[in-house]
Amino acid sequence: MTLTAQERTRRAVRGYHEARFRGDAQAAAAHVGEPFRFQSPFLDSEDREGHLATLPAFVSIVTGVDLISELYGEAEATLVYDVHTATPAGTQRTAEHFRLDGTKIVSILLVFDAAPWQPMKAHIEG
Fold first, then answer.
1. Phi, psi dihedrals of residue 70, rounded to the nearest 5°
2. pLDDT surpassing 90 at residue 85
3. Per residue in 68-83, pLDDT tens?
4. Which of 109, 110, 99, 111 has its CA nearest to residue 9?
5. Does residue 56 have a cis peptide bond before it, meaning omega lies within 30 degrees of 0?
6. What CATH number does the domain containing 15 carry?
C-alpha cells in the first residue's frame, strides 16, 4: 500500500512526538531531517543534535501528556496537547507546528504561555 503525503506526515510527526515523550532521543532523531530549526519561547536552535540532546532533561519533569488535537497536511502538521509537569508551572497547554521535507521534520515551532516558566528560565536555558 502506498502512503499519501498526509499519512507520511502523520507517521513522522506522531513517531517523533511519541519517541520524545518516552525520552527516546534516538527514535525521535529518526524523524528529524537536515537542515533543522526549532523555535520556542525559550530556545531557538538550528542544531538538530543540540535540540535532541535536551529531550532527556525535559522528559524528566514530564508526568503525563494529553493529546487534544492533531491536524495533518501534506508537508505540515499541528499538535495541541497538555503537558503535565512536576514543576511549579504545572500543566502547560502547548501547540506545536511541524514542517516536513518529504518524510523528515525540518522545523518545529513550539507555542505556549511562557509566564509560568519565567522563574525557572535560567535553569531551562542552562
1. -140, 125
2. yes
3. 999 999 999 999 999 9
4. 99
5. no
6. 3.10.450.50
- Number of domain units in the chain: 1
Domain hosting 74: range is 5-125
What 101-105 contacts at long range (C-beta under 8 Å, 24+ apart), as own/partner pairs, is 101/33, 101/75, 102/8, 102/33, 103/8, 103/11, 103/12, 104/12, 104/31, 104/32, 104/33, 104/34, 105/12, 105/13, 105/16, 105/31, 105/32, 105/33, 105/36
Integer Cα distance of 74 and 41 in angstroms: 26
Residue matched to cell numbers 510527526:
13
pLDDT at 62 over 90: yes
